[in-house]
Each structure stands twice: as C-alpha cells, then as structure tokens.
Specification:
Elements (H helix, E strand, L loop, with lengths): L1 H7 L2 E8 L2 E5 L2 H6 L4 H31 L6 H19 L3 E3 L2 H9 L3 H12 L14 H4 L2 H12 L1
Parallel strand pairs: 1-3
Antiparallel strand pairs: 1-2
Helix pairs in contact: 3-4, 4-6, 6-8
C-alpha cells in the first residue's frame, strides 16, 4: 500500500547540466513539505539521472554509428533506448520523483530530435518485451506507424 501512495504523489524534479554532471532541482513547495531530507533525495536523483544519461548516450552513439555506416539499424537497439528511458522513470519513481519535462530533458541531454524520441518511447510503451522483436527486424520497418508495428509484434509474440 505504501508504494501506491508514493506513485500517486510523485514530485517533479528537473536536472541542469553542470560541468559534465547534473544538478537536480525540486519546486520549493516540495522541499518544504518533504518527509525525507530533500538534499539527499536530490543527490540520489542526480546520480540516477546521470547514470541513465550515460547509458542512453552510449545507445544513441551506437544507433548513430549504424546510420553513419549506412547499415540497417536493428529495431532491438531502438527498443533498448526506449527501455532505458522507462528504467529512468521507474528509478526516479522509487525516489517519489518524476521528470519535469521528459522530452525537453532528453532532447537536450541526448542531442536527438523530439519526434524521433517520441517514436522510440511509443515503440517501447506498446512492446514491453524485447524478445518479441526478431533479431533481423530493422527500425526502418517500424518507424512509420510505430504504435501499429509494436502492437503487431506484441500480438504475434503472444
């Protein structure tokens, strides 16, 4: 039951880059009404965000390498990036936090286009299991009509 209460009341957190690390910020009302030490929570949140961004940047670099070398981009690689985003949201929720402006943060910190990022998240949202994606499937076959493609893969898998 305690976890339900936390999920209903997630405080918004934002992050600003500062010398290769990130600083976390909470709205003042959250700081004043916090049960826990907000400073410790913010430090932990910054660590979670930083770790996630490092991982996601690595995936974005791999994705970009496929494109630069004119190779077909595996749909699984894009799904893994989406999964890393879901993992970030989950890890922040364990701290009773949620990212204030998910797309704005990730576009800034990953250097990707918002529209593409939306497709990545849609693909992962409608396809929770990476094993439903054939190894041979390339992202080009999923990029147009992303939700439908993900739902079809999920249906075929189940």
């Amino acid at each position: 039951m305690g976890e339900e209460v936390t999920r209903d009341k997630l405080a918004f957190v934002s992050f600003e880059p500062s010398n290769e690390v990130f600083k976390a910020f909470l709205p003042m009302e959250e700081v004043l009404s916090a049960d826990d030490d907000p400073e410790l929570t913010l430090k932990e949140a910054a660590k979670v965000y930083e770790h996630s961004i490092v991982r996601m940047r690595s995936l974005v670099k791999e994705i970009q390498d496929f494109r630069d070398n004119r190779k077909l981009l595996p749909a699984r690689k894009v799904w893994q990036l989406g999964d890393a985003i879901f993992e970030l949201q989950y890890d922040l929720s364990k701290l009773s936090l949620q990212l204030d402006g998910l797309y704005d943060h990730l576009v800034r910190d990953l250097g990707v286009k918002r529209k593409w990022l939306e497709k990545v998240i849609i693909f992962r949202r409608y396809l929770p299991d990476e094993n439903a994606i054939p190894h041979s499937l390339n992202w080009g076959r999923c990029e147009k009509g992303t939700r439908r493609a993900a739902q079809k893969l999920r249906k075929d898998y189940l």
